[in-house]
Amino acid sequence: MLNWTLQARPLPLRYTWKISRNASEAKTNLFVGVAEAGKSSAGWAEAAPNIRYGETPELLQSQFEGLQIAGLPLVQSEDDLAALLHAHPVAYALRFALEAAYIHLRAAGQRQFVWQYLGVPAPVPVPTAFSLPIMEPGAVAGFLAEHRAGRFSLLKVKVNRESGLELLRAVTQALPGQPLIVDGNEAWADANSLLQFLEACQQLPGLQVRVLEQPLPAAAAADYCYLRPRSPFPLFADESVTHDADFADTARQFHGVNMKLMKAGGYRQGLEILRQTRAHSLQTMLGCMVETSLGIWSAMQVSGLAQVHDLDGFLIIRDEPFGFVRETEGLVVAQAGAPLLI
């Protein structure tokens, strides 16, 4: 028998986290633990619910309780867990945390690192992007200075239709030539209006865009097909790629894919997304939600399969509680062992 637990934890943020569709001062993430009956050590993993997919802490708690009744304590293998989750679907973030906690426990039991258990390359320190939320353009220079953003080799700028151009102008004036990820979070309605914005962006002195991430709604497949050969910047999918993506279709719409474990619903599906991305000659990016270092630690276990890393979610949290990863001069480094106690 397995003992499963779920803990909710409020996480105040260091600043207002504003993207094109919402803003928040704090998040509540959930932490799944699993242990063998009668044993004190437990495998732990994090669920970071995302309202974009209708996920709330309350929903995840309700779904977890339903799984307990449906037989979660009787799981004896990854296959058992997968079958249970197939019969009783839950939010992607909760599905990830359940699978990851189980894998962390089993890897430790077999005296393996998690990356070994998964059969992927060992994680090494990787440069992470650092994200700027949407803010008044006049506040950008002060924000960049306060957070020493120049130490990061890549900055991610959240933009919307209303202020995106001026926000990018302020960033390039403060840090000219700084490589950027421009993240629209589905803010533009169609390809033509976006192309007008991109044309204006190209006139900004010092602008260097490495990635243009999900500027249109995920449902706008025809617009993405039209946009892909016309975009002046590499176009990456985020919300458009979930656990059941058609990668041949994705390759017609994008140049790359941002895989997030919370969105994939598990290590195994996240690895499959990365492999399919590479198999279809798409660039690979590894991202995150607003997560503690526990969630980022999990992402680091598969980081060797990605070309671009956006793993700064733990830097947004005001008092990060665990310390499973650290950031030094723009590099993210993971602890070697599995998180068995929190």
Secondary structure: elements and pairs:
Layout: E1 2-18, E2 23-36, E3 43-47, H1 57-70, H2 78-87, H3 92-109, H4 114-118, E4 126-127, E5 129-132, H5 140-146, E6 154-158, H6 164-174, E7 179-183, H7 191-201, E8 208-213, H8 221-227, E9 235-237, H9 247-253, E10 256-259, H10 261-264, H11 267-279, E11 283-286, H12 293-300, E12 308-309, E13 325-328, E14 331-334
What's the tally of helices? 12
Oligomer: single chain
Tell me the major beta sheet. 8 strands, parallel
Pairing-aware structural class of the strands and helices? Answer: alpha/beta
Run of helices and strands: EEEHHHHEEHEHEHEHEHEHHEHEEE
What is the residue-mean pLDDT, rounded to a whole number? 95
Number of strands: 14
Distance separating the two termini? 21 Å
Instruction: Report the helical percentage.
Output: 25-40%
The whole-angstrom Rg is 20 Å
Can you tell me the residue ranges where pLDDT is under 50 for at least 5 consecutive residues?
none
Strand order of the largest sheet: 5-6-7-8-9-10-11-12
Anisotropy-based shape: globular
Percent range for β-strand residues:
15-25%
Structure description:
This protein is α/β, with parallel strands linked by helices. The chain is 34% helix and 23% strand. It has twelve helices and 14 strands. Helix 2 runs antiparallel to helix 3. The longest helix is centred in the N-terminal third of the chain and has 18 residues.
Offer a concise description of the structure.
The protein is built from twelve helices and 14 strands.
